[in-house]
Amino acid sequence: MIIVIGAGLVGLSTAYELAKRGADVHVVEAYDSAASASWAGAGRLAPFTDSEGGNEQEDFLASALGLYQVFVKELHKRTGIDPYLRIDGIIEVAQDEFAVVRLRERAGSLVARGIHAHWLEPDEVRRLEPSLGAATLGASLIEDEGQIDNRQLGQALRAACVDVGVKLEEQTGPVSLEADERRVLGVRAGANFVAADEVVNAAGAWAGELRGVPAHVRISIVPVKGQLLTLRMPVRLVTRLVSVPGAYLIPRTDGTLLIGETVEEAGFDVRVDPAATQHLRDAAVRAMPALGDLAIDETWAGLRPRSPNGRPFIGATALEGYFVAAGHYRNGILLAPATALAVANVIEGKTS
Ligand SMILES: Cc1cc2nc3c(=O)[nH]c(=O)nc-3n(C[C@H](O)[C@H](O)[C@H](O)COP(=O)(O)OP(=O)(O)OC[C@H]3O[C@@H](n4cnc5c(N)ncnc54)[C@H](O)[C@@H]3O)c2cc1C
What we know:
With 352 residues, the protein is α/β, with parallel strands linked by helices. Helices cover 32% and strands 26% of the residues. An eight-stranded mixed β-sheet has the order 5-6-4-14-15-16-13-17. The radius of gyration is 21 Å and the shape is elongated. The relative contact order is 0.20. Residues 5-11, 28-31, 35-38, 40-44, 174-175, 202-206, 210, 226, 228, 260-261, 302-305, 326, 328-334 line the site of flavin-adenine dinucleotide.
């Protein structure tokens, strides 16, 4: 049996892939999906906009996005739950001359790499997004990017996991790993021990805290807090994902407008600070004054899992039977299906 620790998108995608390949898979979740970054995240599918990596990292994310579309179509068909995947481009707005130069050059360099990117003059971008105000000096549009409703995706994945026979146990409290000096033995939840041949640590921002992990295979993960809010948007004032200085705006299919996000190192604190969400809202209203009339629908915070070099740990460890899929930082929603394939391939290679 394979135990996956954590029912975020990474854990569930991995469990789904392994079960489809015939494995007996058990997912253990300390709380429920609302505790996870996968529920709290924004659902941007953006290999290029706001990129913090170089060309190689961007190309990796872009190829993961190709895989994504197939994955989401399969889940939708299997479960009837639509995760509202939209690859309709991301607009990034310039509000000063420095940003005009930067974004224009960036669009040009992406085109040279074969990516569908454009520089848009103010009248052109306002034709696409008429709510953009006078502060708009132009924008880049990267067509090969988009968004997904990550909460809907989580629902679809849970249903798909059940459909392929994954056993999902929630509200276990934090489980710990059991291992001898040679290999993994299973996991322990309170007084209960469950034996396993393989254990996958998909515990997100808590992956470095997992108890029972021998020192030589422990990983270091820093939780990076993000706060967001949604506004009720009775009329569609924003039609696609728009990044503006200090915030990004994501129109959801349910008629809300998501505004994100702070980036803070605050340990495991997930309290919402009204001043922080107000700051995000102010940035949005500066770019689109009409948003000033909309009421706040919801505010929340989540924890991104960041590794020391910003790249995820994916694969086997020096402890037999112990695998890690954690540390996806700001791209874990995008990278979940690619991670699932990678982990399943490694486990198959190890066990066959
Ligand atoms: C504000 C914010 C915005 C984001 N925006 C985007 C975005 O636009 N695009 C994108 O691609 N990514 C985004 N991300 C990042 C993305 O959400 C994460 O990288 C991804 O969700 C991580 O998934 P995961 O399954 O590894 O971890 P999580 O989703 O955090 O799931 C881990 C689960 O493990 C459980 N767990 C932890 N310890 C234990 C234990 N000991 N025993 C049992 N269970 C345990 C937790 O309760 C949790 O449910 C964002 C994140 C945040 C917080």
